[in-house]
Amino acid sequence: MSALNVCLPSPIAESWDWQLSAACRDADPAVFFHPDNERGEPRASRVRAAKRICLRCPVRARCLNYALDSSERHGIWGGYTEDERRTLQKRREMQSSPASIRPGHQDCGRTLAARAIQ
Question: What cofactor(s) does the depicted protein rely on (predicted)?
Fold first, then answer.
């Protein structure tokens, strides 16, 4: 009988201990996650309140990186809304892609032949 190799995940505490220092730790989670159909000024006011908490957070960058790395789809993380994180994620992906396949990198100023756009 052969020995079984098991790859264990890293301890969870080390991955999440940064949250113990988060400024939002004792805040109402409802500030960071919008209720269904929240729109207009109520939503804008809640987002501003969440971002004020994030501004004073000592682990803000770590929180944002967690949200980007895990593709967190909901809530305010690291001071960024869902839409703002999507924009950051797209930038991140563009920066990590090879220059040769980046849109517009070497094509800037070039004109397409008429047959290419038909």
Answer: [4Fe-4S] cluster
Tokens of 19: 């949250």
**Each residue's pLDDT tens digit in the chain (118 positions)?**
555 666 656 656 667 788 999 999 999 999 999 999 999 999 999 999 999 999 999 999 999 999 999 999 999 999 999 999 999 999 888 887 766 555 555 545 544 444 444 4
Q: Distance between CA atoms of 14 and 62, rounded to whole angstroms?
A: 13
Whole-angstrom distance, CA of residue 81 vs CA of residue 1: 53
7 is in an annotated binding site: no
Report the predicted TM-score, pTM, of the whole model to 2 decimal places: 0.69
3-state secondary structure of 4: coil
